[in-house]
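FIELD: query
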Amino acid sequence: MGRVTSRYRVVRMADGVATARPDSLAAEEPLEIRVAGRPLTVTMRTPGNDFDLARGFLVSEGVVAAYSDIAAIRYCAGATADGVNTYNVLDVLLADGVALPDVSLERNFYTTSSCGLCGKASLEAVRTISKWRVDRDPLRLNAATIATLPEKLRAAQRVFDRTGGLHAAALFDASGDLWCVREDVGRHNAVDKVVGWALDEGRLPLTGTTLMVSGRASFELTQKAVMAGIPVLAAVSAPSSLAVDLASQSGLTLVAFLRGDSMNVYTRPDRIKR
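FIELD: result
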């Protein structure tokens, strides 16, 4: 398996003084995801929880929705010319009766770590239909509970403490208890890893939960929450206009600029109790 961090020698310059020192950086490596041997996408990710990443990605694309939909996941051996496994290519075998991804859903074979949406063939291909209705989720949350989530997320970011260069996503229950946290150089990968964990645990749909992300709330992160049946998405930074539109159409509660006791609730504010 690839390393989560890498060590480099740097020269730190401060107050006119140059000092050589080691520095830890978040690792970034490509991961090719195949389904039944057919390449589906390549994403730049931080190694670790790769199977969860693949599971979550397939949930987001509407390919799978239950643990039983996946028969097996394996790293492809002999990924290099000399037969050494780089652990950067994995293949997903779907269960009997589960349809292969439609060609219209395939990405343009390369996805950057900064924007999973950029690799899509078209915006319309992203508008997949969720198997669950988040607008019907009866979850109600205290504003005071939501206000505690950023600090809890930050406290759980183990690799960030060493590198300062990773996004994070975490799943909380209605009481604000942490279920799962994942870190990655790509914010969409971090969310996929959380959703993939939930799929492996047999927890989908994620009724009554809140997805907390360390950065902004983009369209794709909103779509991933809807596809996993998550009724509330909270972010410490700004949402995009398209994210708000999708949240409004889907009945998802979108909270952004969540800092201390302050927050903006863009959609479904009825879920938030003062």
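FIELD: remark
The first strand starts at residue 5 and ends at 14.
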